[in-house]
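hey m, so remember when u said the C-alpha cells were messed up on ur end? i reran from scratch. heres the input so u can diff it against urs
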Amino acid sequence: LSQDRDHLAVGIYDSAGQLVQQINLGSQRQGMIPFNWNGINDSGVTATNGLYQIKAVANINSTPQAMSTYVASSVNSVMVDSANQKIMLNTSNGDTVNFSDVKQLM
C-alpha cells in the first residue's frame, strides 16, 4: 500500500471469475501486507485444484479502489538472458520472472 488504509479486502477468484473467498484484512499501514489463503472457500469447503486470481481492494476516501497484488513462489533455477543480459528466475509454478520484478525475498 502506498499509504495507510482504513479497510483492505482480498478476494480470491476462480478461473470463471467467481468469488471463492473474501478475506477482510481491516485497517492496514503503508507497505507490503502479507496474507495467506488456506484454500477454503466462503462455504467452508476446500476449493478444487485450478488457477485462481487474487484481487485487493482498499477504501480511499470511502471509495473502493483496486490495489496491486503479488504472490510468492519458489525459485527452481536462475539464468541469464543472453540477448539482454537480464537475470531471469524460473519459478515452481512454471513462470519465468525478470529478477527486477521481484518485490521481496523471503
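this time it looks ok to me. The radius of gyration is 16 Å. if urs says something different then somethings off w ur setup not the seq
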